[in-house]
Amino acid sequence: MFSIWLGAYNQGLAYAGLALGVYLTLRVLNFADITVDGSFALGGGMAAVLITNGMNPALALLAAVLSGALAGCVTALIHTRLGVNDLFAGILTSTGLYSITLRLMGRSNIPLINLNLGLDPLPDMGSGGDGDWAIALSLVVIGLVGLLALLLATDLGLALRALGNNPTMARANAVSGATGLILGIAIANGFVALAGALVAYYQGFADVTMGFGSLILGLGAVIVGESVCRPRSIPMALAAVVIGSILFRFMIALALQVGLEPVDLKLVTALLLLAALALGRLRLPGLANGGKRL
Amino acid sequence: MSLQIEGLCWGHSQPGGSWRQLFKDFKLECPTAQFLVLIGSNGSGKSTLLNLIAGSLKLQAGSLRLKNRPLQHLKDYRRARWIGRVMQNPLDGTAPGLTIAENLRLAESRRRSPFRWQGLLGIRPNKLDVRRFQELLESLEVPLADRINTPVGQLSGGQRQTISLVMATLAEPELLLLDEHTAALDPKAEARVMQLTERLVRQLRTTTLMVTHSLEQALTHGDRLLMLHEGSVRGDWSGAEKAGLSHTNLRELYGSAKVSESNAD
């Protein structure tokens, strides 16, 4: 029984990068970025290909981050240089990324069995591999949260937050909207691709379809985290997002325990989010108006 | 000369497709530290002129120089390094989700791009910055020092406009543009913001262009008064000439009913 919850905890942490990336684009930059659907699978596929070709798993993670950041740049450039609407720019990139990821992988699924991640030196928690995973993933995610919290506290982070808050004011204070968006969306998709790679490591395979619905998953984690923790500062908000990602996995584990079929998970996720939108928990300019009818 | 505008041309197409040439070979020079007040009826080009200087609108011809630095090819956010701006809507000037200190820090650091590696050095605003901003607000007699860590979104319109004004004058701007910055405020807040404007402009000796619809403000503030009509200068008074002006003079010159409407006070 415990192993189910430990597994859910690990999954939550593996998906935390996705939630952090969605938080960065949607909450900080106020940009609805669907690129994440593509960059999540790209990260997973990239890392899987590199590992099966003999690359060190840590370096493969780094490569995944870079590939995701590049994908984010593409969306941001489409939006800022060509003036394409944010949602549409993301859809264009993630659609294109599907083919790119498939080309990269050479087939739709790459198994990662007998993967040696170097987790053996970690203390045995008595629950087999999942204990090691829990420690390793916790450390990685704490690092990610710390990194993002620090980044958002600098002058650069201040500029990004101002840009999402009030673009007119940001421009009047010498902040270039285009540069800010490119940078912010690239960083966010780097986080998302990292999550894709970690998920592939954890579940033991990368699949070209693993990114479908990522934005909604990430958004779910953000909402759950925010409504449970009600954070008052940026570092707290980032921690809340991670907690949300874990709780989200607990909810799914619970749903599966109760007898829900895995096939229905996406439908349930979508319905949960719809309920949150309709109840006004989620106010997103351009996406939702806090439950008010137009 | 601080601000030099020469041969400025700008027009726009109107509903129906016809072209309206607002500015034709427009010329304006402002010496350093001059406080210039711009008046004129709606559509006379006051705000358009400010938008052209700030870079929100593109010059179609002509040159624009600030301290001999050509501006016309720079984007608005690049010009913002030297130009402080306060807009009419108090919601435009500040980021509501950021605290007063964070807003001030953003304005203070606008001489350098935040997207260089220096932008990653250190946590900002730090304790020293916050203390410094509190002292600044106290020295300007702005009673918001104790709310320095409050998100600006929780402040009133007048308070937000006050913060916008302080922000626009941080980082030693070479030019200050005030676009009807008191028009959305109640009379009390208007008086306070104008008092602070006068104080900051005189103290920093910043060249200032202020657009207003209030003849009261036009008569009491500034070193020079410029009246625009259809994109050209209809009147230009300074010194004793400006001091000799009265409400009646100005109203007559406006020569249109629109003015008394928009200036019912």
Care to describe what's here?
- The complex is a heterodimer of chains A (about 290) and B (about 260).
- By secondary structure, chain A is mainly alpha-helical.
- Chain A has one domain.
- Helices cover about 75% and strands about 5% of the residues of chain A.
- Chain A has twelve helices and four strands.
- In chain A, the strands form two sheets. A two-stranded antiparallel ribbon of chain A has the order 1-2. In chain A, strands 3-4 form a two-stranded antiparallel ribbon.
- Chain A is globular.
- The C terminus of chain B is likely disordered.
- In chain B, helix 6 links the parallel strand 7 and strand 8.
- Chain B has a six-stranded mixed beta sheet with strand order 6-7-8-3-9-10, with helices on both faces. In chain B, strands 2-1-4-5 form a four-stranded antiparallel beta sheet, with no helix packed on it.
- In chain B, helix 5 runs parallel beside helix 6.
- The interface between A and B is medium-sized, with 25 and 38 residues.
Helix- and strand-based class of chain A?
mainly alpha
Strand order of the largest sheet of chain B: 6-7-8-3-9-10
Question: Mean pLDDT score of chain A, rounded?
Answer: 89
Strand content of chain A: under 5%
What structural keywords apply?
heterodimer, A: 294 residues, mainly alpha, two-stranded antiparallel ribbon, 12 helices, B: 265 residues, alpha/beta, Rossmann fold, 6-stranded mixed sheet, 4-stranded antiparallel sheet, 24% strand, globular, disordered C terminus
Brief characterization of the structure:
The complex is a heterodimer of chains A (294) and B (265). Chain A has 294 residues and is mainly α. Chain A has helices at residues 2-14, 16-28, 35-52, 57-82, 86-105, 129-153, 155-165, 167-172, 177-203, 214-229, 234-258, 265-278, and strands at residues 109-111, 205-207, 283-284, 288-289.
